[in-house]
Write a structure and sequence with these properties.
By secondary structure, the chain is mainly β. Helix 8 packs across helix 9. It has a 16-stranded antiparallel β-sheet that branches. Strands 28, 30, 31, 33, 37, 38, 39, 40, 41, 42 and 43 form an eleven-stranded mixed β-sheet that branches. Helix content is about 10%, strand content about 30%. The two termini are about 55 Å apart. It contains twelve helices and 43 strands. Among the domains are: about 5-70 and about 335-370, Immunoglobulin-like (Sandwich); about 75-320, Jelly Rolls, CATH 2.60.120.200.
Length: about 750
């Protein structure tokens, strides 16, 4: 069981900038903190082993331990207002699409005091049917129930009214699509003796209601799973006709005086604001990033882009396990001193029986590169995989790897503590895909020493620790380099990489925004040199939130290897309105950027490359200096035993590989566990795995660009795992070093 963990408010900092660290201890009363520079995060005993450099810092020392909790679940909050407190008789209604009606009590809309419960809660009862609960704040509560559970993933009109004079309550539960022999509609009339106390100073909360914790803090509870569209609150009993008028369109003038709030979620979709279109303008804000740009109850399917028909995208999908910011208190702060070398660092925090590393990147001062080579740390990809649960949740995990999944302590902890949030490879508790991922929480899979469940022959081979095979090699061969993150590339654009001659990717730079793509494209066009040191890059298009830091969005649209598929009509990013899915589907296949693109994947054994006739072209002679003409390239390594493995890319002229590209070597002899990627398959047929299909291969590619630059692609995630073999004296290391040296040379190609 994890005993200590933390996170930081930033993922990269420059000299003079401050970064905050938040830490939680399960039991320990104290912990120690220090600064380390991460060189090699892989603990595989067959390799160089874990390497770090201790760096003296202002935060080195002992700190008081305390447990900090995470409260997941999304909702929307409208700040308290006298209009809410003046409610006597009232009506409340909404369009809802519940996804877990069987899960127990869930709130649709509430106005109740967190401590006493005074007010009302409109939502689902234990059976999954509609209910209205009224409380006077003295502990007395009465509830009227529809008595019929709703169907999952069906649209309903739901409403309730309360008459303060007579005590009469009416409930309406109407499915939008009727089914023969299935009747989930209900109209219930009842009378209560209680008078709910709405003079409670409470906010209106949508998709949850406030509660008082034992420590005195207020949180939200009974989070609703599913979509809510067009919630409305009125200050009198509305007739059924009036409710229908409010549901179907703009409120008629005759109802303006009765409206307290009419929240139209199709407004300002790219923000976290929710807009009240009633004359009262009781605007609010969502918490914990529920999914926006969701198809509403009136979506016809005739328009797939929410920007073109926003009125049909008036739904927000709330989840009881959404999480944006863990919200922990700060334990210590670090201001980066001048002269601290650029690189991958971590705040190391440790108790007597556990430790954690909180990684971050130190960048050089703005505009003052300290090297001609920049290694770009793929933090967007780390976030996409953050705290993934594939080992415990994915039914195909063991078939994909060809072996039993080996669970690490981190995997077990994340399985048992879902409040730490999900990756974009997971599904929410209601089965919907996770399209947002934040770094403002402990990301326990983004740690040195973390051993991925994908381990097999070679451990810690996925994402960050595989990338430290590259930083370790750069250090061992004494190549100077700077580090930045792809978040920097997104927000700073071409300026972030303009001072450099060589751009070196990670092993698995999969997730790219348009801003990132444009920056690297401009770098290439300006004569920059690109070393693509991995595979399956430029695959998924992502968006960063425009105002909230540290969160990305992925819409898994048509095509691609997907852990889940976006619902029809929900392919466009809510953060920006851009079409999501594969870059390839948008005319920008990876072959157009690096000459090769994702072709196959397999997670058992890696293989080797065999040189082709192109490798003997004089243009490529510098690459193979010191390499024999008959040598198998990379028939060794820490990742699956070879340099060609996990995910592999190939050249393809039809997808954009330049006509002047040289295919220097290709891998062969992959196992049947390796399968061709889905986007290549038009008709399912035999012959799509290793040993059968020519598409299952990694191509080593080199080509020059018109402005004197060049591109070199290794096309394999496993390539970097072979760099350290035989004390860094091997043909994979030699080829990579030859490329780096020539690419650093200012002579144009």
């Amino acid at each position: 069981m994890k005993q200590i963990m933390g996170y930081s408010d930033k993922i990269s900092v420059r000299p003079g900038e401050a970064i905050r660290f938040m830490v939680s201890c399960e039991k320990a009363s104290s912990y120690k903190a220090r600064l380390v520079r991460i060189i090699h995060g892989d603990t595989n005993p067959e390799g160089p082993g874990y390497k770090e450099q201790a760096v003296k810092s202002e935060f080195d020392g002992t700190y008081k331990g305390r447990k900090q909790a995470i409260f997941a679940g999304s909702c929307a909050v409208i700040p308290s207002h006298p209009a809410f407190d003046k409610l006597s008789s009232f009506s409340v209604q909404a369009m809802v699409w519940p996804t877990t009606p069987e899960k127990g009590r869930q709130t649709i809309l509430s106005h109740c005091d967190a401590k006493s419960g005074a007010g009302f809660i409109f939502g689902l009862d234990e059976s999954g049917g509609l209910a209205l609960a009224l409380s006077d704040g003295t502990g007395k509560t009465e509830e009227v129930r529809a008595g019929k559970p709703m169907l999952s993933r069906e649209w309903y009109f739901v409403a309730a009214s309360y008459n303060a004079v007579s005590g009469e309550v009416c409930l309406y539960q109407k499915p939008m699509v009727p089914y023969a022999k299935v009747d989930t509609s209900a109209r219930v009339e009842g009378t209560v003796t209680i008078k709910p106390r709405n003079e409670n100073g409470a906010p209106v909360v949508i998709a949850a209601h406030p509660v008082r914790m034992s420590d005195g803090r207020e949180r939200t509870s009974a989070h609703y799973n599913g979509k809510i569209d067009r919630p409305i609150l009125a200050s009198r009993v509305l007739s059924r006709l009036e409710m229908e008028q409010l549901r179907s369109g703009g409120p008629p003038a005759s109802l303006h005086a009765a409206l307290v709030g009419l929240w139209d979620f199709s407004k300002e979709i790219t923000t976290e604001r929710i807009i009240d279109v009633s004359p009262n303008r009781h605007h609010g804000e969502t918490l914990n990033l529920p999914a926006r740009a969701m198809t509403g109850w009136n979506w016809t399917g005739e328009e797939m882009c929410w920007k073109h028909k926003p009125e049909q995208y008036g739904a927000i999908h709330f989840h009881d396990d959404d999480l944006y910011d863990a919200g922990w208190d700060t334990d210590f702060t670090f201001t980066v001193p001048a002269g601290l070398r650029s690189g991958l660092y971590a705040a190391h925090v440790a108790t007597e029986d556990d430790e954690d590393f909180i990684p971050f990147v130190v960048k050089p001062e703005r505009g003052k590169a300290t090297s001609k080579l920049v290694f770009v740390v793929p933090t967007a990809s780390y976030m996409a995989y953050a705290n993934e649960h594939m080992a415990t949740d994915a039914t195909l995990a063991e078939l994909l790897t060809g072996r039993l999944a080996t669970l690490q302590a981190t995997d077990v902890f994340l399985h048992e503590h879902r409040e730490y949030g999900y990756s974009c490879y997971d599904t929410h508790a209601d089965g919907s895909g996770v399209c947002y991922s934040s770094r403002l929480r402990p990301i326990l899979t983004m740690r040195p020493k973390y051993q991925s469940w994908l381990g097999g022959k070679g451990s810690s081979l996925w994402q960050m620790n595989a990338d430290t095979h590259i930083t370790d090699w750069l250090e061992a061969l004494k190549f100077d380099y700077d580090c930045i993150t792809d978040e920097d590339l997104h927000f700073e654009g071409y300026e972030a990489i303009a001072p450099y001659r060589v751009f070196m990717t990670s092993t698995h730079h999969e997730y790219w925004s348009k801003q990132m793509w444009d920056a690297l494209d401009a770098f290439k066009k300006a004569g920059g040199r690109l070393i693509y040191a991995g595979a399956n890059a430029w695959y998924w298009r992502i968006a960063y939130h425009q105002t909230k830091p540290g969160v990305i969005e992925v819409r898994r649209a048509e095509g691609g290897i997907r852990a889940w598929a976006a619902e029809p009509g929900e392919y466009y990013h809510s953060f920006t309105g851009e079409y999501g899915g594969l870059w390839r589907r948008q005319g920008l296949a990876p072959q157009k950027m690096a000459g090769t693109g994702f072709s196959a994947q397999g997670f058992d054994l890696s293989s080797y490359y065999r040189r082709t006739k192109d490798s003997f072209d004089s243009r490529a002679s510098f690459i193979f200096e010191g390499v024999g003409k008959d040598e198998l390239i990379g028939n060794f390594g820490l990742i699956g035993g070879g340099a060609a493995g996990l995910e592999v890319d190939r050249a393809d002229r039809l997808l954009g590989t330049p006509p002047n590209a040289l295919v220097l070597a290709s891998s062969e002899n992959h196992t049947p566990v390796y399968m061709v990627v889905l986007e290549e398959i038009l008709i399912n047929a035999p012959g799509l795995c290793g040993g059968e299909s020519d598409l299952v291969r990694a191509d080593l590619v080199f080509y020059e660009t018109p402005s004197g630059g060049a591109v070199f692609a290794t096309s394999s995630i496993a390539w970097a795992g072979s760099l350290s073999h035989n004390n860094y004296d091997n043909n994979v290391s030699r080829i990579t070093a030859n490329v780096v040296k020539r690419f650093l040379d200012e002579r144009p190609f």
